[in-house]
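Quick one, probably user error.
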C-alpha cells in the first residue's frame, strides 16, 4: 500500500513522507519516503508528527473570551461576526493601520499568500509581518544586496554531497535537519568539514577523527572569523581572481575590507587560534574549482544570522565565497539553510512588511500595478511598507500603534525576544485573535481563538530550503468544527464588505498565486498541482508551464542590474549587550533535536516531551565548579531583560565563557524572557544568539539540590 504522499510538517528540509491509516479510526501513521533531500530518512520529530493531529487538547471549536474573562466555545458565525464588528469599530476610530497581522513560515504558500492579501486588501493595513523575521531575514537581506535574489540554497541540496569542503557557520544540522547530514559525506571523507559553533554540538562532533575542524569561536564573533578566513585566502594568493574580475563589481573592495583582519588579530577576538584559521582557509580553498578541487560550500545557519550584525556576517560569508569563485559554479556555492517548513515560500508571497507576492517590493509601482490588477483593486489603495516583527510588536497598544492583532502560525509569547515587553504589548491591545491548531501559550492570551486545520488535513504547497515547490496533501478529516485559515480570511473579508475574492479551496488560491507571482523574482506561474503531483522537481523561477524550473541560479549572471555580484565592505562589531562589566557570560540559545520551535507541537508528542521534558542550561564544568553547582541543580540566569531558573547540564562541550539554553519551553521556562531585542539595522533581526548573562546557584527557592 502506498499511502498518501506528502511532506513532514516541521522544518525546511521537508522530508518526504507517506501517511497510512492507523489502528484508531481516522488516525494516520507516518512513514519515510525516498526523496533526494532525505534519502528515505526522517528525524524523530518527523516519525512522531501524526500525534499532533490527535493531541488531547486539540482546538476543535472557536473560542471567545466572555465577560468573566474565560475562553468559551462559540459558533463560527458568532466568532467571525464578533471579530468583524470589533475590527470595523477599531478601524473607524483609529484608521486602517489600527489592525495588524502576524504570520508564520510554517503556513503553506496558499495560506501565506491569502494572509498577505487579507491584510492589504480586506483590512487595508500596512501592518503585516511574520516570524520569518526571526529566522531568515539576515540571510535574505544579505543575499538580496549581494546577488539581487534570495533563495536559501540557490542549488539542490544534493550538490553539497559532492563538495570536498563545507564550511558550516552557526548551523547544528545534525540536530536541526538530521537526514541532511548524509550530504556532508564528501566533505567529511577528505577532512573538509569546517564547523563554527561555540558548542561542540552533534554537528561539530562530525568533524572529529580527521573529518574536519571545529572552530569553537566566541559567540558573536563569526564576522571577525570570516574576515580573517578571507584575509588568508587573499594574502596567500588562493583567490579566484579571474572570477572576481568577471563576476563581481569590486574585487578591490574585498582586499580593502579584509586587509586588517590578519589571523592573529582575529584570534584575539574569536578565541580560535591563528594557525587553525589559516588551516581552515587552506582546506576550504583547496576544494574550490580554481584549485582543481571537487567543490566548496559555505552555508550559514541561525548561529551566524540571529545577531544585531547578522546581515553583515552573512555578507562576509558571501564575500569569502566570491573570493573563492564559488557562487554560480556547479558543485560549489554559498547558501543559507532555511529553517521553517515553508520559511522560503512564506517570505515570497506577501507576509513580509515590505513585500508583495512573487518576491516583489511593495514600494515598486510596477509591482503594485500588477497586484492591483490580479486582486481587482486600485494600486493607489494598496498600503505601503509596514514595520518589521519586533518593531510591530513594540508598537502594539501604543497611542499611535495597532489596537488589534491577528496571529496565524506563530507562538510569539514563547519565541519573540524580551518577552516581558511582548506580553505588555499584547495586553495593551483591544483585540487579540489567534488561529492555531492547539491552545498555544499565545492562543491562551487571545480574545478570540480560531481552530485551524494542519498539515495532514489540508492540500497546498510548501517551498523547501532548496527553493523546490512541494505538494502537501490531505489524508485525514479534521476533528470537530475545524476550518482552514483560508476560511477565516474569507469569512472576515466578506463580513468587512471586501469585494475581492478569498477562495477557500487551496487549488483555487494557488491558481491566483501563480498569476500574482508571474513576472516576479519568485515566479511560480509555470507550476501546477498536476505537474507537482506527477513528481516534477520544480525549483523557482518557473515562468511557464513548459519551463523545467531552475535548480541552479547564477550560472551566467546574478540578479543584480548588471549581473555582477556586489562586494559589500563589512567590518566586525561586538554584540549589543555589554559584556565588559561584572562577570557575565555569553548566553546563546538554540534548538534540540526533539523539539520544534516554541514547542507548541512537539511538547504535545509524548515520546518527544519525555525525551526532553524541561528547560536546562549547558554549563562548562569550570563555571559549574565556580558556582558550586552540580549536574541537575537549579541555576538562576539573569540578564538586563529578565531572569529564569533552569536545571544545570554540566558539559565540557560548551565554551567556559558561554552558557546555552534551548528556546522550546513556555511560561517561566522561556529563555526569551532573557534575550535581547536589539535589532540588525538592515534585516531587523533580533539578537537571539548572544547576550550577557549573570549565572548563580539557585538554592533558596527550590531547596538544596539533590
Ligand atoms: N530539532 C529542530 N529542528 C529544527 C527546528 C527546531 O526548532 N528544532 N527549527 C527549524 C528552524 S525554523 C530553523 S531556523 C533551523 C535552525 O537551525 P540551526 O541554525 O542549526 O539551529 P540553532 O540551534 O538555532 O543554531 C545553530 C547553532 O548556532 C550556535 N550558535 C549560537 N551562537 C552562535 C554564534 O555566535 N556563532 C556561531 N557560529 N554559532 C552560534 C548554537 O550553539 C547552535 O548549535 O532549524 C530547523 N529545524
Ligand atoms: N531564543 C530564541 N528564540 C527564537 C529562536 C532562537 O533560535 N532562539 N529562533 C527563532 C526562529 S528561527 C523561529 S522560526 C521562531 C519560531 O517560533 P514560532 O513563530 O513561535 O514558531 P512555532 O513554534 O512553529 O509556532 C507555530 C504555531 O503555529 C501553529 N500552526 C501550525 N500550523 C498552522 C497553520 O496551518 N495555521 C495556523 N494558524 N497555525 C498553525 C502551531 O501549532 C504553533 O503554535 O522562533 C524564533 N525564536
Ligand atoms: S528533518 Fe525536518 S523535515 Fe525531516 S523529519 Fe525532521 S523535522 Fe521533518
Ligand atoms: Mo527559524
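Nope, works fine. Designed sequence:
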Amino acid at each position: 500500500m502506498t499511502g498518501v504522499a506528502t511532506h513532514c510538517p516541521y522544518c525546511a528540509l521537508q522530508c518526504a513522507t507517506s501517511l497510512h491509516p492507523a489502528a484508531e479510526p481516522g488516525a494516520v501513521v507516518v512513514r519515510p519516503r525516498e526523496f533526494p533531500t532525505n534519502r528515505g530518512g526522517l528525524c524523530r520529530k518527523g516519525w512522531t508528527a501524526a500525534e499532533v493531529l490527535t493531541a488531547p487538547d486539540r482546538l476543535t471549536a472557536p473560542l471567545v473570551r466572555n465577560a468573566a474573562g474565560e475562553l468559551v466555545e462559540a459558533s463560527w458565525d458568532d466568532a467571525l461576526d464578533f471579530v468583524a464588528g470589533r475590527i470595523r469599530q477599531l478601524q473607524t476610530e483609529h484608521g486602517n493601520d489600527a489592525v495588524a497581522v502576524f504570520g508564520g513560515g510554517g503556513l503553506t504558500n496558499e495560506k501565506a499568500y491569502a494572509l498577505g492579501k487579507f491584510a492589504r486588501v480586506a483590512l487595508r493595513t500596512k501592518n503585516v509581518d511574520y516570524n520569518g523575521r526571526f529566522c531568515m531575514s539576515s540571510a535574505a537581506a544579505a543575499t538580496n544586496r549581494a546577488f539581487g535574489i534570495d533563495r536559501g540554497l540557490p542549488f539542490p541540496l544534493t550538490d553539497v554531497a559532492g563538495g570536498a569542503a563545507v564550511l558550516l557557520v552557526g548551523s547544528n544540522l545534525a540536530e536541526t535537519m538530521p537526514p541532511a547530514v548524509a550530504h556532508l559525506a564528501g566533505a567529511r571523507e577528505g577532512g573538509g568539514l569546517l564547523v563554527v559553533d561555540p558548542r561542540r554540538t552533534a554537528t561539530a562532533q562530525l568533524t572529529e577523527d580527521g573529518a574536519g575542524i571545529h572552530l569553537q569561536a566566541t559567540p558573536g564573533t563569526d564576522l571577525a572569523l570570516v574576515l580573517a578566513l578571507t584575509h588568508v585566502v587573499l594574502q596567500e594568493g588562493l583567490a579566484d581572481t579571474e572570477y572576481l574580475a568577471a563576476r563581481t563589481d569590486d574585487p578591490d573592495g574585498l582586499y580593502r575590507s579584509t586587509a586588517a583582519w590578519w589571523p592573529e588579530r582575529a584570534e584575539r577576538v574569536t578565541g580560535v587560534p591563528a594557525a587553525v584559521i589559516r588551516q581552515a582557509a587552506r582546506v576550504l580553498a583547496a576544494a574550490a574549482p580554481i584549485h582543481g578541487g571537487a567543490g566548496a560550500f559555505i552555508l550559514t545557519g541561525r548561529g551566524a544570522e540571529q545577531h544585531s550584525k547578522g546581515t553583515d556576517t552573512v555578507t562576509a560569508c558571501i564575500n569569502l565565497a566570491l573570493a573563492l569563485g564559488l557562487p554560480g559554479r556547479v558543485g560549489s556555492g554559498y547558501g543559507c539553510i532555511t529553517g521553517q517548513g515553508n520559511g522560503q515560500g512564506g517570505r515570497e508571497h506577501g507576509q513580509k512588511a515590505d513585500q508583495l507576492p512573487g518576491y516583489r517590493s511593495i514600494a515598486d509601482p510596477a509591482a503594485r500595478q500588477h497586484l492591483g490588477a490580479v486582486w481587482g483593486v486600485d494600486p493607489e489603495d494598496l498600503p505601503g511598507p509596514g514595520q518589521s516583527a519586533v518593531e510591530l510588536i513594540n508598537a502594539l497598544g501604543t497611542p499611535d500603534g495597532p489596537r488589534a492583532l491577528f496571529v496565524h502560525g506563530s507562538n510569539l509569547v514563547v519565541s519573540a525576544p524580551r518577552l516581558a515587553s511582548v506580553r505588555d504589548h499584547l495586553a495593551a491591545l483591544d483585540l487579540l485573535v489567534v488561529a492555531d491548531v492547539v491552545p498555544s501559550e499565545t492562543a491562551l492570551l487571545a480574545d478570540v481563538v480560531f481552530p485551524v486545520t494542519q498539515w495532514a488535513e489540508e492540500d497546498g504547497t510548501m517551498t523547501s530550503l532548496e527553493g523546490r515547490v512541494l505538494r502537501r496533501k490531505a489524508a485525514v478529516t479534521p476533528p470537530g468544527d475545524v476550518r482552514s485559515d483560508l476560511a477565516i480570511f474569507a469569512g472576515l473579508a466578506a463580513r468587512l464588505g471586501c469585494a475581492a475574492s478569498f477562495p477557500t479551496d487551496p487549488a483555487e488560491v494557488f491558481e491566483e498565486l501563480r498569476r500574482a507571482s508571474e513576472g516576479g523574482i519568485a515566479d511560480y506561474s509555470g507550476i501546477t498541482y498536476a505537474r507537482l503531483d506527477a513528481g516534477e522537481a520544480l525549483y523557482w523561477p518557473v515562468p511557464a508551464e513548459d519551463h523545467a524550473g531552475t535548480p541552479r541560479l547564477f550560472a551566467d549572471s546574478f540578479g543584480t542590474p548588471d549581473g555582477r555580484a556586489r562586494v559589500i565592505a563589512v567590518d566586525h562589531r561586538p554584540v549589543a549587550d555589554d559584556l565588559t562589566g561584572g562577570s557575565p557570560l555569553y548566553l546563546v540559545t538554540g534548538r534540540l533535536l526533539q523539539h520544534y520551535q516554541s514547542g507548541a507541537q512537539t511538547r504535545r508528542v509524548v515520546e518527544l516531551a519525555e525525551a526532553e521534558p524541561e528547560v536546562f542550561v549547558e554549563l562548562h564544568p569550570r563555571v559549574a565548579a565556580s558556582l558550586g553547582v552540580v549536574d541537575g541543580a537549579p541555576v538562576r540566569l539573569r540578564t538586563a531583560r529578565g531572569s529564569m531558573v533552569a536545571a544545570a547540564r554540566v558539559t565540557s562541550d560548551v565554551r567556559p565563557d558561554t552558557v546555552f539554553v534551548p528556546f522550546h519551553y513556555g511560561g517561566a521556562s522561556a529563555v526569551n524572557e532573557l534575550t535581547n531585542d536589539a535589532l540588525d539595522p538592515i534585516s531587523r533581526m533580533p539578537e537571539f544568539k548572544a547576550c550577557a548573562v549573570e549565572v548563580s546557584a539557585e538554592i533558596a527557592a527550590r531547596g538544596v539540590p539533590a
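DSSP finds 24 helices and 27 strands in the chain.
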